[in-house]
Amino acid sequence: MEIKKLSEEFLYKIGIEVSNLAKQKTAPILTGNLKRDISVRSVSHKEVTIGNTKITSYAKFVHYGTGVYGPKKAKIRAKKAKALKTPYGYKKSIKGQKANPYLENALDEYRNGGGLDRAVKSFGNEIGKKIKADIEVRFKQR
Fold first, then answer.
1. H or E element in which residue 60 lies
2. What is the β-pairing status of strands 84-86 and 89-91?
3. 57-76 pLDDT, tens digit each
4. What range does the domain containing 12 cover?
């Protein structure tokens, strides 16, 4: 049981560090709402989820892209009207927005910058201390 708790704390720390990195370096800033909304969404002893809440419902479009750059790989077309209104006038279709995978970029930067290696080493030291303490307790009991 103790290992599960340590594992959960370990993953939570990694989640916090990656989300902070995304806020500081990789998230796009227009109004700042997307950046402020990044957080650890859930954590268990097996995984941690980092992302945005429904407050910034557009976050998935920024992260994965839209139109020809998004998952559907097709131009964006008007559904009910004859054309789409854009800042550049009316258009029959638009290409969309390129993906900006700011969360994945933050994870890559964390991993490549040695953050993950440091976290794993620290986690190993913590588990080693717990095991040593457990062994000492068991010897004292005999």
1. helix 59-64
2. antiparallel
3. 999 999 999 999 999 999 99
4. 2-65+100-141
Q: Comparing C-alpha atoms, which of 12, 18, 29, 42 is closest to residue 103? A: 18
Residues whose CB is less than 8 angstroms from the CB of residue 34 and which lie 6 or more positions away in sequence, other chains included: 27, 28, 52, 56, 58, 59, 62
The amino acid at 1: M
Q: What is the tally of structural domains in the chain?
A: 1
| Cβ(128)–Cβ(119) below 8 Å | no
Q: Residue 109 carries which side chain, given as an amino acid letter?
A: E
Question: If you count them, how many residues does the chain have?
Answer: 142
Residue 105 lies in a domain: yes
83-129 pLDDT, tens digit each: 999 898 999 999 999 999 999 999 999 999 999 999 999 888 888 88
How far apart CA 26 and CA 60 sit, in angstroms, is 15
SS3 state of residue 90: strand
